[in-house]
Design a protein that fits this description.
Layout lengths: L12 H17 L7 E4 L6 E3 L3 H6 L20 H9 L8 E3 L1 H8 L5 E5 L5 H9 L5 E4 L6 H4 L8 E5 L7 H16 L4 E8 L2 H12 L6 E7 L11 E7 L5 H16 L6 E8 L2
Parallel strand pairs: 1-4, 1-6, 4-5, 6-7
Antiparallel strand pairs: 2-3, 7-9, 8-9, 8-10
Helix pairs in contact: 1-4, 1-9, 3-4
Length: 280
């Protein structure tokens, strides 16, 4: 239990999709002056060294962020995300990948707040070290799912919740849905973003069905596949479920996904889409 380390997968195609979506959500939230809370239930270590033994062993970032971070034809909608990546790699060499907490830290304003939780015994100290000088942030070693009950609604009544579990436990699929349902009852106007891997399509279908039957409206599904579904071991695709998405997000992702898919998957395998799972 709790053996998963994101350092093996940092900067891969799933991170590119996840952090593209997250950057667009956070950018949209800043269009209103009122501050908001960013809650990250499974925050990880925060920063990942791409020359580490773990990252080098898989080399997944080479088919992810390495393919897009210096492209001069990248769509303007990717600018907030790519500017953060470049901030952590100012020498022009891709050495570090910023996880979702660091992406949020760079994009949030001085009046916004971050609430970050991580349970892993090795990753939590690294995350705490990254944020110990940031007065906006609280960093806890705690159950991330429980935060949707204890921290919502935020005082500002505005918030973004990212649920990005490791899925090393099969219960993570149902736990993510259950956490959203509990959070939604307390804070129905919040933006909830649930990341999911496609390893077994049937498991994803069960998750989507549970959300469809939850009674929650305005659920957007965004998915990027790098190869067709398979019964073999390994992730073929990943996606984001966004509840109460900013009004432009569907349009933005449908504009971005063809370029992302073509650039990340030169072979043309797989697929990419943004569609309503449950409309208004």
């Amino acid at each position: 239990m709790l053996s998963y380390r994101h350092s093996f997968h940092a900067g891969n195609h799933a991170d590119v999709l996840k952090h593209t979506v997250l950057s667009l959500i956070l950018s949209a939230m800043k269009e209103k002056e009122k501050p908001f809370l960013y809650l990250d239930s499974h925050a990880g270590a925060g920063r990942y060294l791409l020359s580490s033994e773990q990252a080098e062993r898989t080399g997944e970032y080479l088919e992810g962020i390495a393919r897009i971070w210096q492209r001069d034809d990248a769509p303007a909608l990717l600018a907030p995300y790519l500017e953060v990546v470049r901030h952590f790699n100012r020498a022009g060499q891709l050495r570090y990948y910023p996880g979702s907490p660091l992406l949020a830290r760079q994009l949030l304003r001085g009046e916004d707040k971050l609430h970050l939780t991580e349970l892993h015994v090795s990753d939590y100290p690294l995350l705490r070290s990254e944020f110990h000088k940031d007065p906006r942030a609280s960093v806890l070693r705690a159950d991330g799912y429980q935060q949707l009950k204890s921290q919502l609604p935020p005082a500002s009544r505005r918030g973004v919740v990212l649920i990005d579990p490791p899925y090393e436990l099969k219960t993570d699929y149902q736990d993510g849905v259950s956490a959203i349902q509990k959070g939604y009852k307390r804070f129905a106007t919040g933006v909830y973003a649930l990341w999911y891997p496609v390893v077994l399509r049937q498991q994803v279908k069960r998750t989507l069905s549970a959300l469809e039957q939850s009674g929650i409206r305005r659920i957007l599904q965004i998915e990027l596949a790098v190869r067709p579904d398979s019964d073999r071991r390994g992730m073929t695709a990943s996606g984001m479920i966004v509840i109460n998405p900013p009004w432009k997000l569907e349009q933005q992702m449908n504009a971005l996904l063809p370029w992302l898919h073509q650039t990340l998957v030169p072979s043309g395998q797989g697929h990419a889409f943004a569609r309503w799972l449950v409309p208004e």
